[in-house]
Amino acid sequence: MTGSALNRLAALLPQERFLARPEQLAAYESDGLTVFRATPLAVAIPETAEEVIALVRLCREERLPFVARGSGTSLSGGSLPVEEGIVIAMNRLNHILRLDPALRIAVVEPGVVNTQVTLAAAPHGLHYAPDPSSQTICTIGGNVAFNAGGAHCLKYGMTSNHVLGIKAVLATGEVVEWGGASRENVGPDWCGLFTGNEGLFGIALEITLQLLHKPECFHTVLAGYRTLEQAGDAVSAIVASGLLPGAIEIMDALALEAAVAAVHADYPPGAEAVLIVELEGPREVVAADRSRLDAIVAASHPIEMRPARDAEERAAIWKGRKCAFSAVGRLSPDFIVQDGVVPRRRLGEALRRISEMAREANVR
Ligand SMILES: Cc1cc2nc3c(=O)[nH]c(=O)nc-3n(C[C@H](O)[C@H](O)[C@H](O)COP(=O)(O)OP(=O)(O)OC[C@H]3O[C@@H](n4cnc5c(N)ncnc54)[C@H](O)[C@@H]3O)c2cc1C
Q1: What is the distance between the alpha carbons of residues 54 and 199, in angstroms, rounded to a whole number?
Q2: Least enclosed by CB within 10 Å: which of 41, 78, 219, 309?
């Protein structure tokens, strides 16, 4: 790229929001997949949609590659810079532009952190359902690009199920507005197409999110098992029963070890695996489902079953789970994450086989 192109870009922003010195660029060299690194030519930090649009249009004119970046927590090189390209860091577009409790929507800028939406909605008895484990740091823009999911997506679906409208600047420089406050829109589902595009179509500037009523009550159970396979079989049994919990999660021995090291979580002694199941909804429905769930878990041979007795115990159970993934960093400086799809009947068997393969290969 010519120096004049870089100068033209730099002129779009105040000096302190256009980074080009090596020590300033170091923090932007990778995302959560740190084995891949690339130094961008510069990092632009816009504060308004107009600045983002101007940057994208100039990149287009100068044929300069760009990558949008939220909080850089993606695990697959999503916000990895392109060498000889620029990074457009979206964190300062972090305002909730509108929260309408009657319509149950929030219109947010893309740099808003996931949990901020629920915090803002809480006084109205509402919440934003998609809850990736990284939710206290990752941005809605990154969630949209990666169609992020979380523990509660079993019941509520992924980000794409909660995005009603998107305003974006495409890589061509064209500004588009799709969808809106309504849950029904006419014509092709462009929001659906954009959600999960991995940052390749353009940059989201404004996102309209659907909010849901906070569940009236919860029933959270933690059960410890001697083997991972038993925990997997318990999940299969719960799903086969027709119950639809808000969340079901398993933690294996390594995840338990990490959670204990990080937040001193307390798990049943001797447990090689822990299952967390949470029912949520209207009081009467949860009460009816609770006895069915407790019976299924009790029949799945746990060494111990611990229903949360109050909100504090529930929070403690989830704290252990939500920190487990990042806490694996305490056990090893390098780890690799892969998502897989397993026929639900064969979950226990798949988990047993993975444990066997890990032992055979001497890989934790
Ligand atoms: C500890 C930990 C736990 C995690 N748990 C989960 C989990 O439970 N579920 C899950 O799905 N993921 C999880 N992730 C992965 C990651 O947090 C998500 O993919 C998240 O959506 C990334 O958001 P971000 O703001 O960090 O985006 P970044 O990593 O900065 O970017 C991700 C992608 O989004 C694009 N992007 C960013 N902003 C915009 C924008 N405004 N417009 C268009 N594209 C944009 C980038 O170009 C890139 O392609 C986890 C990661 C960590 C480190």
Answers
A1: 18
A2: 309
Q: What residues are paired with 222 via a beta bridge? A: 276, 306
Nearest CA to 344 out of 214, 243, 234, 252 is that of: 234
- Residue among 351, 313, 157 at smallest CA distance from 236: 351
Of the CA atoms within 13 Å of residue 74, those in its CB half-sphere come to 28
Length of the chain in terms of residues written: 364
Task: Indicate whether residue 356 lines ligand 1 (CB < 6 A).
Answer: no
The residue whose CB lies within 8 Å of the most ligand 1 atoms, and thus the one to mutate among 36, 47, 73, 109, is 73
Alpha-carbon distance 100 to 210, whole Å?
10
Euclidean distance between CA atoms 106 and 151, whole angstroms: 22
CA atoms within 13 A on the CB side of 350: 11
The rounded Å distance from CA 73 to ligand 1 centre is 5
Structure-block tokens of residue 91 = 């964190």
Phi first, then psi, for residue 314 (nearest 5°) are -65, -45
Whether 210 contacts 108, CB under 8 Å: no
- Tens of pLDDT, residues 243-280: 999 999 999 998 999 888 888 888 999 999 999 999 99
Strands 304-307 and 217-225, bridge-based pairing: antiparallel
Cβ–ligand 1 contact at 199 (below 6 Å): yes
In this prediction the pTM is 0.91
Cβ–ligand 1 contact at 142 (below 6 Å): yes
- Ligand 1 atom 18: residue of nearest CA: 74
